[in-house]
Amino acid sequence: MRKYGVADTTFSRVDMGSVAINTIKKEDPEAEIARYTVPGIKDLPVAAKRLIEEGCDGVITLGWVGKTMLDKYSYLATSIGLITVQILTSKHVIDVTVHEDESEDLEKLKEIAIDRATKHARNLVKLVRDGKNSLTPLAGKGLRQGYKDAGPID
Amino acid sequence: MRKYGVADTTFSRVDMGSVAINTIKKEDPEAEIARYTVPGIKDLPVAAKRLIEEGCDGVITLGWVGKTMLDKYSYLATSIGLITVQILTSKHVIDVTVHEDESEDLEKLKEIAIDRATKHARNLVKLVRDGKNSLTPLAGKGLRQGYKDAGPID
Amino acid sequence: MRKYGVADTTFSRVDMGSVAINTIKKEDPEAEIARYTVPGIKDLPVAAKRLIEEGCDGVITLGWVGKTMLDKYSYLATSIGLITVQILTSKHVIDVTVHEDESEDLEKLKEIAIDRATKHARNLVKLVRDGKNSLTPLAGKGLRQGYKDAGPID
Amino acid sequence: MRKYGVADTTFSRVDMGSVAINTIKKEDPEAEIARYTVPGIKDLPVAAKRLIEEGCDGVITLGWVGKTMLDKYSYLATSIGLITVQILTSKHVIDVTVHEDESEDLEKLKEIAIDRATKHARNLVKLVRDGKNSLTPLAGKGLRQGYKDAGPID
Amino acid sequence: MRKYGVADTTFSRVDMGSVAINTIKKEDPEAEIARYTVPGIKDLPVAAKRLIEEGCDGVITLGWVGKTMLDKYSYLATSIGLITVQILTSKHVIDVTVHEDESEDLEKLKEIAIDRATKHARNLVKLVRDGKNSLTPLAGKGLRQGYKDAGPID
Known about the structure:
Five copies of one chain form a homopentamer. Chain A has helices at about 15-25, 45-55, 70-90, 105-130, and strands at about 5-10, 30-40, 60-65, 90-100. With about 150 residues, chain A is α/β, with parallel strands linked by helices. In chain A, helix 1 (about 15-25) links the parallel strand 1 (about 5-10) and strand 2 (about 30-40). The N and C termini of chain A lie far apart (about 40 Å). Chains in contact: A-B, A-C, B-D, C-E, D-E.
């Protein structure tokens, strides 16, 4: 049976972990789900690694990033780490990140977070359950998570 | 028989995956081609790794990058990841990236994407099929993908 | 029995190592604690690696970063290194960093350092002793270390 | 018998690969030389890795970098990759890079490229053939490649 | 018997390698010392790796960095590489770096270089010979290399 990992943080101002779990349950009701909560984004790579080690076929991480240049450097280091985990395990770790400077409006920020977590949870299920061509009909379609789709050119 | 991998994204606004596949088919008609579609550029390194693990001799990745500094950090993390995949597998992963800020004109952007994907698909076939000296006659010639060649100095 | 590692620096202007040790002792009185002091932040990843190799179940690192762009690049390299240690060992290395430009007021800077070291030492104990769901009740709650909590949106 | 690897690109506007080969032949006439030409700098790390795998004792890579911030990010990713190849193989990969913004004058740029490739090809021969103390008489002497030496202070 | 590695460059304008060697000899007279001279900072990680492979218990690297943004990117790539060497070998590689823009005054720059190399050579001896608690009495004391100590807050 498939098993999904959900890694989230206490730093985040929106409970994206629950959003992801609910979406996965709806999309793949028979699957098992494991959750791992860490303080901040730099702790997500090891959480993803450990979730994979306990049998997850794929992981979604839910990060929240502050506004300063240092937050952005932490984002960069985390991104490199999450990619490294994927390379070493050959499993997908889909990275949902919300940046506090994406909107001044907190309600809008929450909407972005929920939309992004929902859509990427669906992406994870598709990739894990249906494989490498499950998203191919949408290739080049300009899809966006957190915002409305840009669409294909022409 | 040779096998090529093509990894593309749903974020892209141009279907560069199909462009690459058609080019590879024309250049090396007997080869097998596997496609892997992921949400965005940060998912490309693991897609390339998995394509290599299922037997691809080389991979072309087709990424589309937004305009913000964060998009550029994602580009940097992805580039490091794609290079790491190549180092660990000793296979070529040729990285086609189109940046949304390369042109304000969407038609121009599409032309850049198609030209770059086509030329780099040819490069991949040459390297995989004909080996390390296949491009040597063109060394130092100032070739460009997506733009017209700069040419050699003098 | 659990064993925690504490890695700190002579560069730091606050003895955060002692703060972390005292917090761990209070939170998990029976645990063993090993300390490793290095010159600066770029020496922390190997200290964390060695602490894990001598049996620590998790490590807290306590770094202090100067104000220049070069200090920030060192911070970035260190962050990547600390994440790599975690990925390779599958152990948590919780990274406490204080940046000299977080406050012009030295007393305030010291308060930030003590608060951050204390709260993250508690996080480490929770993760090491109580596992991946120990922080889940606080997921998405907008917790902060060094500052007051931002809180959840809504 | 010693074997040197030379990795260059079709992106470059100067045929630095031939410059490096001619220099190596002059400095170490009995050695074997293998050349590997790739499209751009991000393909150099895997070329260096493959040259080492086919028996090269050391490699020189010859990269050409454009003027935009994205080119510089590609330079950074490539540099990290080339260093990783060296760490994993314990072989020298000497990295010659020319940046298009080093001079507005194309003739000057070509001179820089030739001088840098020549001097670093000599450095490679010294390190591979004569070992870790071959350059020690020049330690701290402020040598430069592509420009005239800065010289030691005092 | 202990063995120390000293890796330096021909790019540097001060012979910091000799400074480090003399300091190590004074601090640990019976120890063996191996020196490795490379062209520039990006060659230091593999030099450190090779010194460790020939039996060094710890290494000090002595880098000199120019003033441009590209020099700083090379510094970043080198720093990541030196940290990676430490993580893979579990040995200390203490990184002394002098940036040309630390002072306009060449004499001052030389003083910085000598002071930094001397103090960090002592740090290396302490860590290698006396272990993880040898610097603990100085933890949080605001020590600086190349400048006068900042001291602890309060």
